[in-house]
Amino acid sequence: MKKRRRRERPKPWSQVDNIPPDVTLEILSRLPPKSIMRHRCVSKLWSYLTSLPSFINSFTSRSTSRPPTLMVTLSSESAKYVLFFPTTPKPSSYSPLYSYEITNLDWKDSRSESIHGLILTPVFKIWNPTLRQFLALPHPPAQHSSSRGWSSYLGYDPLECRHKVLCVVSKIYSGQPLILTLGAQESWRIISEGRCPIHRPTGGYGRCVNGILYYRACLLGDDQEIIMSFDVKSENFNIIKLPEGSSQLYMIPYEGRVALVAHDYHVVKLYILKDAHGHEWKSFIFNVPSERVRMESMRFRGTTDAGEFIFAAYRSSEDLCILYCWISLLKPKTNQIIIKL
Fold first, then answer.
1. For the stretch 181-220, what's the b/e string if a residue is b when 16 or more beta carbons lie within 10 angstroms of its beta carbon?
2. Of 251, 253, 225, 252, which is closest to residue 240 (Cα–Cα)?
3. CA atoms of 304 and 315, how far apart (whole Å)
4. Residue among 199, 309, 313, 204 nearest 250 (CA)
5. In a 3-state reduction of DSSP, which class is residue 287?
6. What pLDDT sits at residue 330?
């Protein structure tokens, strides 16, 4: 009888297999990113569960409830560093809470800002800076060879929770760009003829705002620069005219809409697109209040998810100064952060 009970007694490690998948997902979703990456190697099941869109979305929603952090990348001739630090101002300088060095560096500049946690690099790799993970993408087919050149943009569809990479020939005019859906085990496919105006990109980042990807381009037979919009879900294109005198302005997302900004020392000029399907822009001019920073040495770097304008020093030695400004279009407010490198 004792031997029979001993044989029937379940082994301690077999209890892990009896945990329901939804409970396992709930436990894993409460772990920090580094632990999730480490625990993906436990089994094929855990690797599969942590790759599900539902798990990624639940992890993202939990992350948004935490205090916001700002990611900064620093480059040298041989290395690239990533720093994360809180945007809550402190009375004195401080070091980043979390940082690491990117090894095997084969790129210096990104092709996109963070699009729902992912960044596109110019060597056709997707970078997840939080999980410290790179995903190599297949290169476009022969008709989009390097001799003709291409521009690639990363977009995100919030309805279907999918990332897509748009690839457009940049050296000649074309009306058939390529599209690649991440995580769908798909290859590059050509957008059907007639759905896209014949155009070529004119350089610069693309910006994805609420499922719409925007990038600068020129139409065939017209040298006037325009903004081409691309609906990531429906994969339809639309042409948006730029406001006069704004060809050199920086494109940003602002309060759920695309905007253009120009920075000249303390003065910032902002154009906000009122209608995504029209051509009406609303302009604002404001001064950046700063008492302890020389704005002549600062450069505009982008915006946060909260709509704050970020300015950073052009060059840094021992300290990196970052100024972020919240614009209410009535009374700007600024905070200053000094990071000890």
1. bbeeeeebeebeeeebeebbbbeebbbbbebbbbbbbbbe
2. 225
3. 21
4. 204
5. strand
6. 46
